[in-house]
Amino acid sequence: MGHVLLTGATGRIGTALVYCAGFSPIAAVARSGPETWRRTMAVNVASTAELVRLALPALRRSRGHVVFVNASPGMTGVPRWSAFVAGKAAMREPDDSLRE
């Protein structure tokens, strides 16, 4: 999966990275095959980490911030949204670990 960092007219990353994305298949665990889980984790977890990794040096130089927009299913289960809920919950801890 490729990633693109959008920058302003200056060609530099500004003072914030706002991450708000998600892939949300609606299926119970019994109907969620391995590809559903892989894709959901790739979009909702791995792409988050990669985007932050790429932007972090510039954000540190500018004393910028990373803002993650999560979903309430990341806090509590929702019937038939098993992979989505797991992906959003998986975002919480790495997000907190950025508070260095």
From TrEMBL:
InterPro entries: NAD(P)-bd_dom_sf, SDR_fam
Keyword S-adenosyl-L-methionine: no
Keyword RNA-binding applies: no
Gene Ontology MF annotations: oxidoreductase activity
Any one GO cellular component localisation term in the record: membrane
Annotated Pfam families: adh_short
Annotated keywords: Oxidoreductase
Family in the record: Belongs to the short-chain dehydrogenases/reductases (SDR) family.
Record-linked PANTHER family: DEHYDROGENASE/REDUCTASE SDR FAMILY MEMBER 7B (PTHR44196), DEHYDROGENASE_REDUCTASE SDR FAMILY MEMBER 7B (PTHR44196:SF1)
Protein's recorded name: SDR family NAD(P)-dependent oxidoreductase
